[in-house]
Design goal:
Keywords: Amino-acid biosynthesis, ATP-binding, Histidine biosynthesis, Hydrolase, Metal-binding, Multifunctional enzyme, NAD, Nucleotide-binding, Oxidoreductase, Zinc. Its cofactor is Zn(2+). By secondary structure, the protein is of the alpha/beta class. The structure holds nicotinamide-adenine-dinucleotide, L-histidinol and zinc ion.
Length: 809
C-alpha cells in the first residue's frame, strides 16, 4: 500500500518551488501532475530531479486537447500511470500503444491503478501540493494505520535507498508526526519508553526519504539515508542489524566513494580516477572482452570487470548508482507509439500499408518517420543524432589504407581497388586527352542536360570569382593589399559507390576551372562491368580540362592524390563528397604535415531537414525527404513540422510510404528512414532554432511565405525556398553547388564555391612617412614580447631616416 495522500501538482512553474518549500511532500513518494498545466520538459525534469518521487502519475483532463504525440512524450518522460475520465479516453490511450495497466479510469470516487502499486487512489485524498501540510500528511497516515499490539505501536521496517533492510523498530503516533515534520528517522524506543531520534547520541543520523505501508496497513516501511560518519545503523557498529551487507554493486559504489576520497597516490584506483584516458581504454577493453566471452563463467567474469570500471566512471563523475537505476526505471516506462493504429482513418483504403510487423527497419513494415514532440528535449536530442560511426572507429579502418598507399603507391591502389570495388586494373590512371571510346553510350540528351547544368553552375560561380586586388591605406604611407591566386593543383573526388555522380564532377570541376586552377585531377571508383568510369564523368572531365582521372575510390583514392604516386601528381587540395571512408581519409591527410594538403570540408552522407507547415503539400514534402534518403543507408532526413495537424502528419507519412515503395532503392530508403524522424513544433521560431542547432546540409522550407523566414537561417549548407524548389534542382542544374558540409559542420563551413579553389595573399608597402606613423607602435609591442630583432628592424631604419636619435635605446 502506498502513502494514503496523492499530492497533486497543478502548475509547471511551481513544481520545483513547492517541493523546496514543502520537502515533506516527497515522503509520500508519489505525485500526480496536471498535464493540462505542465509542459513535457517540466514533467521530465520533475521526474529526473526528484528521485524520492518513485511513482509519478499524470492527469489527462477530458476538456484538455492534447495530441497523441504529446501523450507519448509525457509517458516517455517517466509518467507511470495516466489518470483519465472515462473508458473512451482509456481506449484512445491503448490504441496509441500505452498498456492497459498504465491507465487508471475515474470510477467516481477513485482512480484504480494496477501498475507497480496496486492501489485505488481516493479522490478526496488527491490533495493540491501547494496547500498540503505536515499535519495532514501525518494524520492521513495514522488514520490509515492499524495495530493489534497492546502498546499501540506500529512495527516499522527501516531500509536504505536501495531497499536493503537495516533493521526493525517501532513507531508511535507522536514519533510519526515528528518524523514527517523533521524528515529524519524518529521512532519510539520500547526499552526507554520514549521518543527516539536515531543518531542523536551516536551521530549516525538518518535522513527520511520515503514512507510506505504494507498491504494490510499494519506495518510501516521507512526508507532512509544514513548520514553519520560511519553510516552504521546497528548499535553494534555494523551497517544493518543483520550484519554487514554483501559486496555487490552498492557495496562497490560505497567502497569506490571512500577510495575516491582517500585512495593512496600510487594505487591503481587512484590512477584510474586521475587518468580519464586510461579509464576510457579500460571500459572499451572490458566491453570488447564481454562481447567476445562465450561460456557462462567467462561472461560473468567479464561483466563483473566491465561493471567495476563503469562504476569507477560513475564515482569519478559524481553520478550515483541510484541515478542509473532511476534511468533504467524511466527507460522501462517508455512506450513506443503503435505505428498506423491511431491514424488508420487517414490512410487511403486502396493503398493502406500493412502495419509494421516488427521494427521500422523490418523489410515489410511501414516506411514512416518516428514522430517526436519538440517539447520532449531528450527525444529531440536522440532524433537529431546522426547515424555515423565514431571518428576513432572509422579512423581505425582508414589509417592502414592511407599508410599503405602512401608507402606503396600504385601497387597498393590497385590492390585496394580489387578488394573494395572488385575491379582488377593494370593501370589506375586515365590520362587526358581521354580516348573517344570512353564517351561511348553518351546520348545527345545527356550532353544537353550536362551542358545546361554546367552553364548554370559556371554563371553562378563566375559571379563569385574574386579578381580584384583589395587595397586599403591604413595610415598615410602604409598600403595594405590582398590579391587572389588559384590553388595550383586540385584533386576532385567523385563518388561512385552506391551511385555514380557525374553531377558532382561538374559541381567540382566547373568552379575549379572558373578559378583557373592549373591542374585538375579527378578520382572516382571504376565500375565493375568494365573497369571504367561512366562516360558522363569523362565528358565533364574533358569539358573542365582535367588532366587525369584516377580510377579509384574511397580512402585509397584520397591518399593517392594527397601524397602522389608514380603516376598521380600530389595535389594541394582535395575536394568533394564521399562516404565515411572518403571523409575520414580527407580529414586524416589534412592533419598530416607530410601530405601538405588541405581539404574543402567534411562532406559526408547526404542529409536534409524539411520545415513544413499546414500549407505544405504532403507529396512534395515526402518526395524531398526521399530524394536524400535514397543516397545511402547512412543518410538522414528530418521533418520539422510547425503546428501540423494529425491529419497532415498522416498524409505525409502515407505519401512517404507510397512513394518509397515505388523506388528502386527502396531498401536503402527503408534503412535511412529507420534512423530519421519528424519533430513537431508549435512555432516557426522553435522550428528554426532546432534547424540551426542541427545545421543541416540542405534546408527545405515548405511553409507559407517561405522567403520571409530566410533571415532566421543561421546554419545550413544550402536553402531551398518554397514549394516549387525541390532539393534536386540544387543537386543538378540550378547553379548552386551541391558539395556541402554535413554532420553539422554547416555551423562553421560554407559549401564548395569559387573561393574554395582560391587563396588570398596579402601584401603591404610602407613609405618613410608610413614608418614614422607606425614604427614606434611596432617597437613598443616588440619590446613587451622580448623580440629585439623585430624592434631593431624598425629602429635601424628610423634612425637612418632621422626619425629617431642615434642614441635611441
Ligand atoms: N555532402 C555532399 O555534398 C554530398 C554530395 C554528393 C554525395 N554525397 C554522399 O556521398 C556518399 C557517396 O558514398 P558512396 O559509398 O556511394 O561512394 P564513395 O565513392 O564515396 O565510396 C565508395 C568507396 O568506398 C570504399 N569502401 C566501401 N566499403 C569500404 C570498406 N568496408 N572499407 C574501406 N573502404 C570501403 C570503396 O573503395 C569504394 O570505392 C553518399 O553518402 C552521399 O550521400 C554527399
Ligand atoms: N544531394 C547530394 C549532396 O548531398 C548531391 C547529389 C548528387 N546527385 C544527386 N544528389
Ligand atoms: Zn542528392
Amino acid at each position: 500500500m502506498v502513502f494514503p495522500i496523492l499530492p497533486f501538482f497543478t502548475n509547471g512553474k511551481d513544481l520545483r518551488s513547492v517541493v523546496e518549500v514543502k520537502p515533506f511532500i516527497s515522503l509520500s513518494g508519489q505525485a500526480l501532475l496536471d498535464l493540462s498545466q505542465i509542459e513535457i520538459a517540466e514533467a521530465a525534469a520533475f521526474v529526473e530531479e526528484n528521485t524520492a518521487f518513485k511513482f509519478v502519475c499524470g492527469l489527462l483532463k477530458s476538456d484538455h486537447q492534447i495530441s497523441d504525440n504529446d501523450i507519448i512524450s509525457f509517458v516517455n518522460s517517466g509518467i507511470a500511470v495516466l489518470f483519465v475520465a472515462n473508458e473512451t479516453e482509456a481506449t484512445r490511450l491503448q490504441d496509441l500503444g500505452i498498456p492497459k495497466e498504465r491507465v487508471a479510469v475515474d470510477s467516481g470516487s477513485a482512480y484504480a491503478s494496477r501498475f507497480e502499486v496496486v492501489q485505488d487512489f481516493q479522490k478526496d485524498l488527491i490533495i493540491d501540493a501547494g496547500s498540503l501540510t505536515e499535519t495532514q500528511m501525518a494524520q492521513s497516515l495514522i488514520s490509515t494505520l492499524r495495530t493489534d499490539r497492546a502498546d499501540k505501536l506500529y512495527t516499522t521496517l527501516v531500509v536504505d535507498s536501495y531497499e536493503r533492510c537495516l533493521g526493525l523498530v517501532y513507531s508511535s503516533e507522536e514519533s510519526i508526526k515528528l518524523a514527517i515534520q523533521k524528515q529524519v528517522g524518529i521512532y519510539y524506543s520500547r526499552s526507554r519508553n520514549e521518543i527516539w531520534e536515531k543518531g542523536l547520541t551516536s551521530g549516525n543520523t538518518q535522513k527520511l526519504v520515503n514512507i510506505r505501508l504494507d498491504c494490510d496497513g499494519d506495518a510501516l516501511k521507512f526508507v532512509v539515508v544514513q548520514e553519520g560518519k560511519k553510516s552504521d545503523f546497528c548499535h553494534l557498529n555494523t551497517a544493518s542489524c543483520y550484519g554487514e551487507f554483501q559486496s555487490g554493486l552498492v557495496g562497490l559504489e560505497q567502497l569506490l566513494r571512500q577510495r575516491f576520497e582517500n585512495a593512496p597516490e600510487k594505487s591503481y584506483t587512484r590512477r584510474l580516477f586521475n587518468d580519464p584516458d586510461l579509464l576510457t581504454a579500460k571500459i572499451k577493453e572490458e566491453a570488447e572482452e564481454l562481447t567476445e566471452a562465450n561460456t557462462k563463467s567467462e561472461i560473468s567474469w567479464e561483466a563483473a570487470d566491465l561493471f567495476y570500471f563503469a562504476m569507477v566512471k560513475l564515482v569519478a563523475s559524481g553520478v550515483s548508482l541510484e541515478a542509473v537505476e532511476r534511468n533504467l526505471h524511466i527507460k522501462h516506462l517508455k512506450v513506443t507509439r503503435r505505428q498506423g493504429d491511431a491514424k488508420a482513418k487517414f490512410i487511403k483504403q486502396e493503398t493502406k500499408p500493412q502495419p509494421a510487423q516488427e521494427t521500422e527497419s523490418s523489410l515489410s513494415g511501414l516506411i514512416n518517420l518516428a514522430v517526436v514532440s519538440g517539447k520532449d528535449k531528450k527525444g529531440v536530442e536522440a532524433a537529431l543524432e546522426r547515424p555515423i560511426q565514431r571518428t576513432s572507429e572509422i579512423m581505425h579502418l582508414v589509417n592502414p589504407i592511407v599508410e599503405k598507399v602512401k608507402s606503396e603507391g600504385n601497387k597498393a591502389l590497385i590492390e585496394f581497388t580489387n578488394k573494395f570495388d572488385g575491379v582488377k586494373l593494370e593501370n589506375p590512371v586515365l590520362e587526358a586527352p581521354f580516348p573517344e571510346e570512353y564517351l561511348e553510350g553518351l546520348t545527345q540528351e545527356m550532353r544537353d542536360a550536362l551542358d545546361l547544368s554546367i552553364e548554370n553552375v559556371r554563371k553562378f560561380h563566375d559571379a563569385q570569382l574574386q579578381k580584384e586586388v583589395l587595397q586599403v591605406e591604413t595610415q598615410p604611407g602604409v598600403l595594405c593589399s590582398r590579391f587572389p591566386r588559384p590553388i595550383e593543383k586540385v584533386g576532385l573526388y567523385i563518388p561512385g559507390g552506391t551511385a555514380v555522380l557525374p553531377s558532382t564532377a561538374l559541381m567540382l570541376g566547373v568552379p575549379a576551372r572558373v578559378a583557373q586552377c592549373k591542374e585538375i585531377v579527378f578520382a572516382s571508383p571504376p565500375r565493375k562491368s568494365d573497369g571504367r568510369v561512366s562516360p558522363e564523368v569523362v565528358y565533364v572531365a574533358q569539358k573542365v580540362g582535367a588532366s587525369k582521372i584516377v580510377l579509384a575510390g574511397g580512402a585509397q583514392a584520397v591518399a593517392a592524390m594527397a601524397y602522389g604516386t608514380e603516376t598521380i601528381p600530389k595535389v594541394d587540395k582535395i575536394l568533394g563528397p564521399g562516404n565515411q571512408f572518403v571523409t575520414a581519409a580527407k580529414m586524416y591527410v589534412q592533419n598530416d604535415t607530410q601530405a601538405l594538403c588541405s581539404i574543402d570540408m567534411p562532406a559526408g552522407p547526404s542529409e536534409v531537414l524539411v520545415v513544413a507547415d499546414e500549407h505544405a503539400d504532403a507529396d512534395f514534402v515526402a518526395s524531398d525527404l526521399l530524394s536524400q534518403a535514397e543516397h545511402g543507408i547512412d543518410s538522414q532526413v528530418i521533418l520539422v513540422g510547425v503546428s501540423l495537424s494529425e491529419q497532415k502528419i498522416a498524409e505525409i507519412q502515407n505519401a512517404l510510404h507510397e512513394q518509397a515503395l515505388k523506388l528502386p532503392r527502396v531498401d536503402i530508403v527503408r534503412k535511412c528512414i529507420a534512423h530519421s524522424s519528424a519533430v513537431l513544433c508549435d512555432s516557426y521560431e522553435e522550428a528554426f532554432d532546432m534547424s540551426n542547432d542541427y545545421a543541416p546540409e540542405h534546408l527545405i522550407l515548405q511553409i507559407k511565405d517561405a522567403a520571409d523566414y530566410v533571415p532566421l537561417v543561421f546554419n545550413a549548407g544550402s536553402v531551398f525556398v518554397g514549394a516549387y524548389t525541390p532539393e534536386s534542382c540544387g543537386d543538378y542544374s540550378s547553379g548552386t553547388n551541391h558539395t556541402l558540409p554535413t554532420y553539422g559542420y554547416a555551423r562553421q563551413y560554407s559549401g564548395v564555391n569559387t573561393g574554395t579553389f582560391q587563396k588570398f595573399i596579402t601584401a603591404q608597402s610602407v613609405t618613410p612617412e608610413g614608418l614614422e606613423n607606425i614604427g614606434r607602435a611596432v617597437m613598443t609591442v616588440a619590446k613587451v614580447e622580448g623580440l629585439d630583432a623585430h624592434r631593431n628592424a624598425i629602429k635601424i631604419r628610423m634612425q637612418k631616416l632621422g626619425q629617431l636619435p642615434e642614441n635611441f635605446q
